Amino acid sequence: MRKIHILKAIVDFVWIVSIPIIPFAIVAIPLIFFMDDLGDFDIKINGVLLTSNSILSKVLIVVSITAFLLTFYSLYLFRKVLAYFLRLKIFDNTVISSFNKIGNLLVISGILSLAVSFIFTLYFKHKIIFEVGYDSKILIICFGLFFMILSEVFKISKGMKEENDLTI
């Protein structure tokens, strides 16, 4: 049980550190389109440095911020799931639906981040780059799929637990 307390503490720390960024991210979305010139702002989101003032770069920045907000919301749901685990409500419907939501949000966030990175490299650098190694965007998609599978496993386990509880 100590491991779950350590995990909850780490997730809570990341949550608390990320909270101040959220208002700036939400306010930045409309401001980006109203600003004619981004000036000397070098914006790096998910490993992609966006410096151009074109409409495409502004759209890519907004999509990157959206991907960040989706990941942040999935972290909120994960905190909620950990709270249920600490209360030993493992097979609660909220846990199962939260796992599925987390999975969907992470897959969408990963695909958006991957698309931004690909479009940026293709449009601004005029290159198509294939790298061998770990990419955080692919890893986020994998975690999303894992959470969706975990949701299904918990749904099946809950059904089996209910059958077992009825059989005396």
UniProtKB/TrEMBL annotation:
InterPro entries: DUF2975
Key words, A-Z: Membrane, Transmembrane, Transmembrane helix
Domain of life: Bacteria
Transmembrane regions listed in the UniProt entry: 12-35, 55-78, 99-124, 136-154
A Pfam family recorded for this sequence: DUF2975
Keyword Membrane: yes
Protein name, as recorded: DUF2975 domain-containing protein
